[in-house]
Amino acid sequence: MYINKESLRLEYQVEAKDAGLKVIDVLATSMNISSRLIRKCKNHKNIFLNHKNGSVNRIVETGDIITMMLDHDENTFEPNPIDVEVLYEDCDIMAVSKPPFLVVHPTKGHPEGTLANALSYHQYQQKQNYKIRFINRLDRDTSGIVLIAKNAYAQQIISEQMQADEVGKHYYAIVEGVLKDDSGTIDLPIDREAELDIKRIVIESGLQSVTHYEVVEKFENHTFIKIELETGRTHQIRVHFSHIGHSIVGDSLYGKPSEWIDRQALHCYEMSFKSPREMEKTSVRCKIPADIESVLKRLRG
Description:
Structural Genomics Hypothetical 15.5 Kd Protein In mrcA-pckA Intergenic Region, Chain A; 10-stranded mixed beta sheet; 16 strands; isomerase; Pseudouridine synthase; PsdUridine_synth_RsuA/RluA
């Protein structure tokens, strides 16, 4: 079991089930470390048994301590004084609330003023310095939870969970029209129609995309729903609901603009994952932002 809580040090106490194995085998199985990361740390002589460097083929006994030191990869984003709400933080993972209209990562069109720059400023205030590794991303106009890994190990573990569709991704949305069924699943493949298109479509040759939904509240011409993503394709929710004739309110790309809100009414309110070291289920929640609450107030009024 892991016995420490330091971002750049993984320290594991050998259990009875590991006794008689080689260090490298314990790293790969019980510690869940990728062969790529093991190789990198081995080359840098950053793997220790009972605090002594040596061969990764040494045999371990119950109670031995295996230590792996991770490289200190520095943050490279310029700090911008942008407030960011931290929803959850431990030695491996940070979860923050991304407000609408904030780009996640610098691009040619948005070299600064992004969530990455805000997180860099947060590090500066906390007197920390680590590479910002985004686990998930949200569209500029979608609000909600973004996960960040603080080290290469955490990035590997949570990314593997993402690829296996084991990370819970839950959204609220307000859609045009009244959904007939109170719950359902949209299982339709998605891809670009042409290689350079920003817009995605439902297309037979696309990647499998599965969206589950449940009605929270029905109005005269709109529906408030909660959504669980089984897969995580680009624009998946927006494409799926537009395709079935219920585009997200305010989605000017896949539907139409709204006089009530100047973005799509889509918010990631909960994400769940297994913590990298203990593999314990962790859930993070984020409250509905004011602009979506304002739309709901209008609809209820």
